[in-house]
């Protein structure tokens, strides 16, 4: 198996609506960003790239089948190989791993992964209906199955079992929005307080509008390469590229209907014991077994035994503030039941930023330094690849170059994680990136 490197990435501005351009042209923005940053002329890149992976969630938003093929043509990539992936909210993260597999298998030396969504083409209520089609349309959808309702139910269970509070969830929103204030590609750049979050319009108790990500238009692209591919690109660019290596990938799945999920023992991380969870009914409605399974596989491949101590930052799929808290536990940043306290402790915050909160602990492993889905936006097919772009820049030490501001640059970051999540935990992907 070949080693896999992330050599460049690009994003478009994530926005509530992009009526100015077609979906193909929006994708071109992020692809040209990545190629330009690589330092290679676009015609030369077309010679060197071996194929692509197209990432978008719903044909419904496009009112067009074969959108990936249309982008492939628009970018001038024909007749090279391509395939489209779809996995709900995890689509971008899965696309990243499909690109990884193309390189690791030796099938390609240079692979372009591009992702997009243009969700503004329909009204918000229709968009929520389309997204709800990713639940079980025979059982869940007919009884009011919009995802905000599902996540509200899950976090209420988390509150009942573990004492999690709405204010702890609000701390996640404050953190992610203030981080995004320094990210020019984020959809929502505003500084909030706990009061702002709790007094926002209630959507599904205890989730307010500021606890929930927004539908978005946008694109993100990532270029992956083998060592041979890196050499080709460096020759074309006339310079050495600051490489980041993919050292671990993992995916997990679970039953779409939460009622069908069996209760078993918690799959343990190396730093955990059965005694830690002797009274825990798992996975329950409070946890995502797929997230734990994906983390275990990725950590094993990357040699991670204590996530909180060995990971420098995480770009985590926070479609809801509550799901960020739940995922802390699934990824082993804290034990099950401790997510609420962890969220408000300061351990997941960025150093050097004043959040206006009484944080008890210093940052240990910042989560969503980019602002996450909550503030950056969630153009579904682009989201996981956008996470990869932000992680790449963090590890390259080029945040100031891309953002025009060094506030979000972590000093000496060497290992980051990107995490994508679909449905109520039906698909989850976890990928580990390390400074080469």
C-alpha-based Rg, rounded? 20 Å
CATH class annotation of the domain at 5-122 and 217-237: Alpha Beta
CATH fold description of the domain at 5-122 and 217-237: Peroxisomal Thiolase, Chain A, domain 1
Quickly count the helices.
Answer: 17
Supply the CATH superfamily name of the domain at 5-122 and 217-237.
Answer: Thiolase/Chalcone synthase
Helical content band:
25-40%
Strand order of the largest sheet: 3-2-4-7-1-8-11-10-9
Gross geometry: globular
Beta-strand content bin: 15-25%
Pattern of helices and strands: EHHEHHEHEHHHHEEEHEHHEHHHHHEE
Largest sheet: 9 strands, mixed
**What would you say the CATH architecture of the domain at 5-122 and 217-237 is?**
3-Layer(aba) Sandwich
Distance between the termini: 17 Å
Structural class: alpha/beta
Written account of the structure:
There is one protein chain. The chain has 436 residues and is α/β, with parallel strands linked by helices. The chain has a domain at 5-122 and 217-237: Thiolase/Chalcone synthase (Peroxisomal Thiolase, Chain A, domain 1), CATH 3.40.47. Helix content is 38%, strand content 16%. It has 17 helices and eleven strands. Strands 3-2-4-7-1-8-11-10-9 form a nine-stranded mixed β-sheet, with helices on both faces. A hairpin with a 2-residue loop joins strand 5 and strand 6. Helix 5 crosses helix 16 (380-396). The longest helix has 17 residues, at 380-396. It is globular, with a radius of gyration of 20 Å. It starts with a strand and ends with a strand.
